[in-house]
Amino acid sequence: MVTGPALLHVTPVLTLKQGELATFYQSENYGHGRPVGFIVPQQDTANGPTLLVSGSKPGAAKLTVVARAQSTGKEQQLTLKGSRSSHCEKVPMNVMNGSASCRGGEQSILILTIAEGDNVTVPTGVYAGSLRIEAKEGNGRPLVKALSFDYQVTIEHEDAGVPAGSGGPEPPNAGTGEHEPRQGRTDH
User: Fold this and answer.
1) CB 48: neighbour CB atoms within 10 A?
2) Contact, 184 vs 46, CB < 8 A?
């Protein structure tokens, strides 16, 4: 008999093109009046923050996952970024393992992104792997939710068939330093 929080299994499938930032996954709100952060438990296929940190720390935490190339079967390291949307006025986006609290309610939404710029050494191809993340109220406290991912990411280093740097069409927001994240598909 299994007790405790339910396991949520999702399957993100997305294509990452040159210069893009894509939303790998966005969770539901696990806060509901309490600060909840997200950690990467010990596993062979991923590394990331393993402990929650108190307070707020703006930005995103780095995660590395080991994926397998569908064409060759070789392992390849991919880099993701993990943030926690807290809905706090001063620091609305914290690192994923931040367990900051703010007045006016708690929101704890995990947002995982992948950027082509963080994965420029990854050969073009389709990569698949798995990842586990835990939502927790505090270190040494019971789980709020266990998240399990079987993902597939297609990496393309050319934009719409135009080789990089060839003067082809510019992506949206080119030159502004801003990127519109593309949403990955999740199947629950």
Assistant:
1) 22
2) no
Beta bridge partners of 63: 80
For 110, the enclosing helix (H) or strand (E) is: strand 109-115
The amino acid occupying position 141 is R
Length of the chain (residues):
188
Question: How many C-beta atoms lie closer than 10 Å to residue 186's C-beta?
Answer: 19
Asked if the model's pLDDT at residue 50 lies above 60, the reply is yes
30: left (phi over 0), alpha (psi -120 to 50) or beta: alpha
Domains of the chain (ranges; CATH) run: 7-161 (2.60.40.2520)
Report the C-alpha gap between 26 and 52 in whole angstroms: 19
Separation CA 124–CA 100 (nearest Å): 38
Q: What are 169-187's pLDDT values in tens digits?
A: 333 333 333 333 444 433 3
